[in-house]
Design goal:
alpha/beta; two-stranded antiparallel ribbon; 52% helix; single chain; 484 residues; six-stranded mixed sheet
Length: 484
C-alpha cells in the first residue's frame, strides 16, 4: 500500500488521534461512580441507623454534595488515572483506592474541623469510601467495554515490524479491551511483503515517520523489530521514530508471557530487573494476613449460605457433603483439597468406564482433566460447578495454611508433565483458590497460557493484585464463564 492509498483508508476510519474522548468518558464515568458510592453510603446510614442522629439524613440529600466531585477528579488526575490507557488493572485498583481514601478523608476531616462534631454525614462518607473503589472499577470496566465495542475508543498507533513480533503486538492490541491503542499502520522494509495484516495496512518503508506525524498527528509508535542490530536500531530511533511523542520498544526476548520489569541504571548501562516477589518474607507475611482476614470475615458472613448448600447436597443425592481429592501443592507436596461433592458417590469407577467406552471423552480428559458434559455430575452439582460454589470449602485449606486465596491452582500427578520445566518455579508458592488464569479464561485456558499467567503473578505480586483477582473472580463466578 502507498501513503496516498493509506490516506484515504485512514480518513474514512479515524477522526481522532488523541486520548481526549477516552479521558472524557472516564471522567464522566468516575463522576457517576462517585455519586453512586456517596448515595450508597447515605443509604446504609439511613436504613441501618449507625448513629443516633441518622434521622437527620435523607437518602436523596446526597445529591446536594455534588460540589465535592471536582475534588475526586483532581485527585485522580494527580494519580495519572486519565487517560488511563494501558494501565495494569492492579495498578488501577491501587490508584483508585488511594485516591478515594485521600478525597473522602479530606472531605470528612474538613467537615469535622469545621463543626467539631461527628455526625451521620461523616459516617455516610466513610461507608462511601469503603465501597467507592469497587464501584469505580466496575464503572470504568463498563466504559472500557463500551469504547471497544462501539469502536469509539482506541488511540491510533503505528507498529514498526510485520514479522512475528509485530503481528503478535497487533493481535494483542486488537484483542484487548483495556489497551487503549489501536494499530492503524504497520511499517517494514520488505519490498515484496503483504499489503495488510488483519485489515491493518502495511507500507514497506520505515522512513516515513516524520510524514505520518505531520499528516495524521499520530503520537504513538511501537517498535517490534527485534532482529535489528544496534546501528540499525540507533538510526531508526534517531530518524523516523523520533517524530512520535511516545515510543515503545519490544525487546528481542518478548513472548506471550507477560513479565513485570523495572528499569535500572548501572552507570549508564540499561538493566531490566525482574524478581520473584513471593520469595520475600515480608510479602509472604502480608499475603498470609490478607488470607486470614478475608477468609475469617468473609466466612462468617457466608456461613449460613454454606450450611444451606450442605443441607441441599445431602437431600438431593446419596453420599457425604464434602469431597476430598489429593492434589500437589507448594514445593510438590501432596495435600487434600476440600470441595462440596458435585458428583455421584462412585464417580471414580464411573470415570474409568466412561473413558474406556468413549475415545472422545478420553481425549478431552487427557487434555484438560475435565469433561465439559460430565454425566457423573449431580443436578445440584451442576449448579455448584457453574457458580464455582463447590470450591468454597477450600477456605478450610486456606485456614490450615495449605493454600492461599490467590495463586496457581493445585494440580494432580498427571498434570505435572504439562508444566514441564516451569513446574518447580510455579509451585514454589502455595496454590490458590483462584488465580489470574481463572479470571482470564478459567477452564478455557490451556497450559501454556496458565504458565504465562502464573509467571506474571509470581513476578508482579502485590496485595493490590490479589485484591484485583478477587474482584474479577466475583464477576467470573456470577457469569459462570468457563466453569464446568
Amino acid at each position: 500500500m502507498t501513503l496516498s492509498e493509506f490516506d484515504v483508508w485512514y480518513h474514512t476510519r479515524f477522526r481522532r488521534t488523541s486520548s481526549a474522548l477516552t479521558s472524557t468518558a472516564f471522567i464522566l464515568s468516575d463522576l457517576l461512580a462517585v455519586m453512586l458510592s456517596i448515595g450508597w453510603g447515605f443509604f446504609w446510614v439511613r436504613i441501618y441507623g449507625f448513629i443516633h442522629d441518622y434521622g437527620s439524613i435523607n437518602f436523596k440529600s446526597f445529591v446536594t454534595y455534588w460540589p465535592y466531585l471536582p475534588v475526586f477528579i483532581l485527585v485522580f488526575q494527580i494519580l495519572n488515572l486519565y487517560p488511563g490507557v494501558s494501565l495494569a488493572p492492579s495498578e488501577e485498583l491501587r490508584r483508585f483506592s488511594i485516591g478515594s481514601f485521600m478525597a473522602y478523608g479530606g472531605i470528612v476531616m474538613s467537615r469535622y474541623i469545621e463543626s467539631t462534631v461527628w455526625d451521620s454525614i461523616n459516617t455516610a462518607f466513610l461507608i462511601s469510601c469503603f465501597f467507592s473503589t469497587t464501584i469505580l472499577l466496575t464503572a470504568r470496566g463498563v466504559i472500557h467495554w463500551f469504547l471497544y465495542k462501539t469502536k469509539l475508543g482506541g488511540i491510533p498507533a503505528v507498529i514498526y515490524g510485520s514479522g512475528s513480533t509485530g503481528k503478535l503486538v497487533a493481535d494483542c492490541l486488537l484483542g484487548s479491551i483495556r489497551s487503549g491503542y489501536k494499530p492503524v499502520l504497520i511499517l517494514d522494509d520488505e519490498e515484496n511483503g503483504p499489503n495488510e495484516y488483519r485489515d491493518i495496512p502495511i507500507i514497506h518503508d520505515t522512513s516515513i515517520g516524520q510524514e505520518l506525524v505531520k499528516r495524521y498527528k499520530i503520537r504513538m509508535a511501537i517498535l517490534a523489530m527485534p532482529e535489528l542490530d544496534v546501528p540499525q536500531l540507533k538510526q531508526l530511533l534517531n530518524s523516523s521514530l523520533s517524530a512520535f511523542r511516545y515510543n515503545v520498544l519490544i525487546p528481542n526476548f518478548f513472548t506471550t508471557t507477560n513479565i513485570w520489569m523495572s528499569v535500572r541504571d548501572f552507570e549508564g548501562v540499561l538493566g531490566l530487573v525482574t524478581s520473584h516477589k513471593l520469595k520475600m518474607y515480608w510479602n509472604l507475611a502480608i499475603k498470609r494476613f490478607m488470607d486470614l482476614f478475608i477468609v475469617i470475615v468473609g466466612g462468617i458472613i457466608i456461613l449460613p449460605v454454606l450450611l444451606l448448600i450442605a443441607l441441599l447436597i445431602k437431600i438431593t443425592s446419596a453420599g457425604p457433603v464434602l469431597y476430598k481429592h489429593k492434589r500437589i501443592g507448594m514445593n510438590g507436596n501432596y495435600f487434600y483439597v476440600y470441595k462440596f461433592r458435585s458428583m455421584v458417590k462412585d464417580s471414580e469407577e464411573r470415570l474409568l468406564e466412561l473413558l474406556e467406552e468413549n475415545p472422545m471423552l478420553k481425549n478431552e480428559w487427557e487434555t484438560t482433566h475435565k469433561l465439559q458434559n460430565d454425566p457423573r455430575v449431580t443436578v445440584m452439582g451442576k449448579f455448584l460447578r457453574r457458580t464455582s460454589i463447590d470450591e468454597f470449602p477450600q477456605l478450610i485449606n486456606i485456614l490450615k495454611g495449605e493454600m492461599s486465596l490467590v495463586g496457581p491452582r493445585p494440580i494432580v500427578d498427571d498434570e505435572m508433565d504439562k508444566y514441564g520445566e516451569d513446574f518447580h518455579r510455579i509451585f514454589s508458592i502455595k496454590p490458590g483458590l483462584t488465580g489470574l488464569w481463572q479470571v482470564s479464561g478459567r477452564s478455557d485456558t490451556n497450559y501454556n497460557e496458565r504458565v504465562a499467567y502464573d509467571t506474571y503473578y509470581l513476578q508482579s505480586w502485590s496485595g493490590w493484585l490479589d485484591l484485583w483477582v478477587l474482584y474479577k473472580t466475583f464477576g467470573a463466578v456470577v457469569r459462570g464463564r468457563g466453569a464446568y
